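Hello again,

I reread your note about wanting to compare the complex against the isolated chains. To keep things tidy I'm splitting this into two emails, and this first one only covers the full assembly. Below are the input lines as submitted, including protein chains and any nucleic acid or small-molecule components. They are followed by the predicted structure of everything together. The single-chain runs will come separately.
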Amino acid sequence: MSKRHIAVVGAGMAAARFAERYSALGGEARVTLYGSEPRAPYNRVLLADVLTGRYDAEAITLPVGDAVLRPGAEVVALDLGARVLTLVDGGTEAYDELVLATGANPVLPPIRRLRREDGGGPREGVHALRTLADCARLAEEAMDAKRAVVVGGGVLGVSVARALAALGPQVEIVHQGPHLIERQLDEDAATALREALRTLGVEVYLGNRARALTEAGEVELADGYRLSTDLTVLACGVRPRTALAHAAGLAVGRGVLVDDTLAASPAHASTPHGSAPHGSALEAPTPTPHVFAIGDCAEHAGVVHGLAGPAWEQADVLAARLSGADPEARYTGSRPLARLSAGPIEYAAFGEVHADAEADVLRLTDATRGSYKKLVMRGDRLVGAILLGDLATVGDLARALARDASLPETPLHLLTQHLLTTTLGASR
Amino acid sequence: MTTTWAAATATHCPYCALQCGMRLVPAAGAVPVEVRERADFPVNRGALCGKGQNAAALLAPGVRLTTPLVRDVRDSRGGRAARGELRAASWAEALDRVASGFAAVREEHGADAVGVFGGGGLTNEKAYQLGKFARIALRTATIDYNGRFCMSSAAAAARTAFGVDRGLPFPLADIPHTDSLILVGANPAETMPPALRYFRELRENGGTLIVVDPRRTRTAEQADLHLQPVPGTDLALALGLLHLLIADRMVDVDFVAERTSGFEQARAAAMAHWPERVERITGVPVAALREAARHFGRARTGMVLTARGPEQQSKGTDTVGAWINLCLASGKAGRLYSGYGCLTGQGNGQGGREHGQKADQLPGYRSIEDPAARAHVAAVWGVGPDELPRSGRSAYELLDSLGAPGPDGVRALLLMGSNPVVSAPRAARITGRLRSLDLLVVSDLVLSESAQLADVVLPSTQWAEETGTMTNLEGRVLLRRRATEPPDGARSDLWVLKELAERLGAKGPGGEGGFDDDPETVFAELRRASAGGPADYAGISYGRIAAEDGVFWPCPAEDHPGTPRLFLDAFATPDGRARFAPVSHRPAAEEPDAEYPVHLTTGRVLAQYQSGAQTRRVAELNAAAPGPFVELHPRLAARVGVVDGEPLAVVSRRGRVVAPARVTDAIRPDTVFMPFHWAGPGRANTLTNPALDPTSKMPEFKVCAVRLERTGERK
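Full-complex prediction:
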């Protein structure tokens, strides 16, 4: 009898993590990763530093355990009833369990003349940073570029701007929001971050939207101001890749809807596609047998994370279930964490950072050292934190949040003391 | 043997794996010898810790056993309840009882129902003879030893990576010459104080000392950089450091290409452990990871030394493998003043694992499943290869099967030089298992907690009363010399094994196939049995050891100088290349949760040794460390509502203990620490988790989940 076959659609970070964990946990089925990119899975988190040249492109490959890799074998159709998938070359393959890990695509914002004349992808000089191929193209152009514009001042935009600045160009960030990284940072932190970026030569335009690319190669802002540039990088977020799941009849909100077992469900059993998906996974529709979704393409309890950490937590749960190591494992959500550690640009943002009236807030600002720290508490629970500039207590904070333990009476230590008791040379 | 010896006998300490040199001089009074320094011995250069200085105290009559003890069975069908108290007996009665008991169990339940459990404190000769006794006198596969609880994970990882396991591949004296040293889960300031000078000298020479430990130990206080990870996360820490070596171009590409294999897999695993993720798992800030990686990666030479911290985990083998990877990637192995080493714990932890008291091994560090190894050793023992049993079960598995019903149950056990009532994980269960045996035989020099459960107690001679070799953590074979006459009634383990073998119908004493009780004769046989094996002692003799301050194995011939430094030309793998370990981080077997929210880690204190069977009987040591305690951070103490010195209950899924709180900010606020030297209500191993490493079968002593409860007994 041949082994059971687990087909993983996608070969990105979630897929690689699932495959590696599944092998490590002693899973006995044959696992195949069908990827659209022509290469083995790699660590997307490191792309900004591939851009700076810190990592070689080949060096960021991720382990996949005993899984078989099928790079360049994009899955174009699914027959969930027959349990057969169709590949881009027309070939079909049978599976016993299907794991959708199709990831996400960069969002192309509504900017005039952004796309090529033929209506396809972005025109020349306009880049996303989602794949190694993007990275290689961008790195090549950045070598000769004198000016670069990054559209979007979220986590990715800041990271890309920092990386581009290291390569030489004068970098400008255009950000629609009121301040940088508004989902994870508060205004004070974002202001400090903006100052830190300025020391790297990165300018930030806030509350302003890129409206068009001009024929002269400028980025035109909504207020009419034009930024001349040699290259433009889009960092406007990502959108889950759900077309395949949708076409196959699975319930899709913003992402493929999954329950705590990461099982997908049929479309008719859930809220119709397009209506508000919030909380739809809580209604517990009957899952589609043998179909699961993890990572950036999945929507769990109304949340699409789009971050490596939650994607891996989902992959870990699914690997534990399907390998038999822990058939009862459940994914109950992730605490969001934004973390950048790149020279002078250092921040960490955990959990709830925007305090409402019921929350208690503890803040420490050190303007001379450019550091900003904030704790958000509800009752005796720590629910969120921001550290910027001085990250000495980051390990303690991360653990305190992860453990959900009640706080000591004086949580100030989480901002001022730290466990790293010795620094090099201090005890000499 | 004649009993004339020099006024001062040059010998070694009875305790840890350093095997410090000392001299014993005759004394008047109850204790027959006094300990003096032996300044010319290279390992400790005259230094001794309190344990060594007070070693002679156990020679006093009254402290140690001097007569066999037997417990009468009043109703052979009634089991334990019908047994009497231990009473003095003659050697003949005790040995007859043991031999007939073993024979009866073998008759009724099969040879594997008689088990043997040895110790890492036994001399090479005893360890060798015990393994041989099990295999050809008892014909049982059921033999293992407490070294499984010591360095088995490091041994497994080193054997896979380098092809051979020797604690240190270089002499301790090399340590001051390296540029950067990472000490992982090791606290030599308390566990082997005389070694501390090497680390001090390293720093005086301008080298960097990095200590990885969840506690700011006395050792960590001496470090240039102390990384304080969550217990059970040092595997992620090592992977994160490897990631940084790769990211920041500190990989020695030529070394990796020429002397290693498997780098791509290790690199991929490291890519899955980027610094920010490792920070989240370990609690060690990225900046500190960077600093450690920079110092180790940029150093010209470097060493990583591990001890029980990374090893005593259910992923200990992988964790050590990850630290070895760090050495290999940066070209810091197989070169002068560079390499990976394990700080072995027990006195003969090294030799004890080489000569056949381990379930899967034959003398010379041979595999019991290797046909060539079986043929060689069987020939030395004068039996056919097919007569040798196969591989048996590991230490915890063995102890856990004691008295179990069915064909796998072990009904009788010979326990030699070990005290599992205190030292085994989930000790309450193991104590119950020992009680359920038909026959428990304990050979020890004191009435340990395990001996108190025995049906027969055999009083053994001790270190200063007998001669034998020990192999210290450097792989240096040393000679312990008899310095005083043993008291009437105490007998050497070699003599006991000879007498039992005769009673069990094994071949006569002396020569091949027999059991001799003269250490040097046994050593000569061990040399032949080890010849050609990875741990080759063939060229080592008592004379050479004495003349050369010890001889480093492998030493295949009498004209071979021995091997102080391994791997300088090639690693001991078939192709001469070291192997990267393809390892990934995984959580501890038991992580904290709402019910058991705090990590427990266990360890040792300066004035006590292992299960405390010896050191708790020495007044000076007991005064310094009178009992167990629970170390916890002031913030955790505040949350629990406990003050320093107050009895605090620590509860795990396996039991509950009570010991005084010791409040200190030297420990992480999410972790408590307990030393494991004591029996009774403060026995740390009541709590520990016997989750085993899949390769080494090491139990997870170093991390489990507990909760803390006030006892209301505030002073």
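For quick reference: Chain A has three domains: 5-105+238-323, 126-234, 352-416.

B.
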